[in-house]
Amino acid sequence: MKVYADNAATTRLRPEALRAYTETATEFFGNPSSLHSEGQRAKEVLEDCRARMAKALGALPREIVFTSGGSEADNQAILSAARAGAQKGKTRIVSTAIEHHAVLHALNRLKREGFTIDLLPVGTDGIVRAADAEKALGEDVCLCSVMLANNEIGTVQPVKEIAALCRARKIPFHTDAVQAVGHLNVDVNELGADYLALSAHKFGGPRGVGALYARTGAPLSPLVEGGAQERGKRAGTENLPAIAAMTVALEAALATRPETEAYVSALRDRLIDGLSRIPHCALNGDRTRRLAGNVSFCFEGIEGESLLLLLDDKGVSASSGSACTSGSLDPSHVLLAIGRVHDVAHGSLRLTLNEENTKEEVDYLLTVVPEVVETLRNMSPVWRDLTEGKRKFIL
Ligand SMILES: *Cc1c(COP(=O)(O)O)cnc(C)c1O
User: Is there an atom of ligand 1 within 6 Å of 176 CB?
Assistant: First the structure.
């Protein structure tokens, strides 16, 4: 059996999105900046997509900038707010310890430029406390950035509460909503966000396309200089087929969102309940305040990388930590932030489901994951020490 359980890394392209892609690429090949009718037809498609994306988020069309994906949108929001803040002498940024690298590395760049970065901790449940944000928000803060849902452990953050604290203090607020859009109810006004990043390939759209929502009046500077596309906020000929495919994918995701959430969270709960029976393991992140499709565990006495390879042999595509951390030997910053010690953090497994997964697949996972964990433990000197009492179990 083949089981794709890595939907937080990327999703399969929805058929309707593929159709929109090819149709736009062939029928609307003009450059939207061209004055001739071929260009103007393409421009109409572009603006129609912008209006539909805006509607899906409760935004205004002119508040949407199309980007190459979530990373670019995060970078643009953060750098724009920081540059504007610095001009007013505000050089502190508040964010969290569990952000995606697209946010953390943009903040690192600003730190090298002289900004102060305060990363809020999370509880062992993987959730940031609004009270901690409140303490950190001062006069000198030019931006607060808190992700809506975490990509590794799926926890949903109190973004609405923190955005309200920022609003009361006139501090610009950004949320990386890449894991949330298409999956949770996301309305920029309900959330109170000034900036919001999304990415198409996390909800059945193509890779390499996303959007940044920037509220009217929120400072926005281009990362890429050149032509006047995107009202001067992002130069470069628009990736129109991808933008059209993203728009269709988001509408399709939202059309069935409540049913999908109920279906996927039932699969998730079945998987969590079953895997919890494995000895010396722990679920990462809060049991209920998490994305419908996210299952993340740590298993003591094994290496996550070996687990992935053996699972791959059994036809299972899974992940350990985030795709961006694989290849490096450092354990995930998110798992460390929820208090997992290094050894335990190394034994992590992330299975992320969506509407394409079935109960049969979950049952297959419930057979192969315990088998593979046992196989690896039987080969592990660390496990032998644990069972012989030479080391203490943590989980
Ligand atoms: C995937 C992801 C990103 C990056 O999006 P890309 O479109 O791949 O650049 C950023 N933030 C989160 C939370 C993500 O899951």
Answer: yes
pTM of the model: 0.97
**159-163, 263-267, 318-322: the lowest-pLDDT one:** 318-322
Question: For 237-254, how does the pLDDT look when each residue is reduced to its tens digit (9 = 90+)?
Answer: 999 999 999 999 999 999
> Is there a catalytic annotation at residue 324?
yes
CB atoms within 10 A of CB 191: 23
Would you tell me the crossing angle of helices 359-379 and 304-313 to the nearest 10 degrees? 130
Question: Which of 221, 254, 287 is the C-terminal boundary of a domain?
Answer: 254
CATH number, domain of 219, equals 3.40.640.10
- Same domain, yes or no: 92 and 126: yes
Task: Report which ligand 1 atom has the smallest distance to the Cα of 147.
Answer: 13
Which residue segment(s) compose the domain that 236 sits in? 15-254
Write down the catalytic residue from 144, 166, 281, 324: 324
Residues 234 and 267 in one domain: no
What digits encode the pLDDT tens for the residues 181-240?
A: 999 999 999 999 999 999 999 999 999 999 999 999 999 999 999 999 999 999 999 999
Domain identity same for 239 and 296: no
Say how far apart CA 293 and CA 155 lie, in whole Å: 11
Q: How far is CA 344 from CA 15, 28, 34, 197, 393, in A?
A: 40, 52, 57, 32, 10
Ligand 1, pocket-test mutation among 145, 159, 199, 207, most atoms within 8 A of CB: 199
Which of 178, 250, 350 should be mutated for ligand 1, with most atoms under 8 A from CB?
178
> Residue 305 maps to which CATH number?
3.90.1150.10
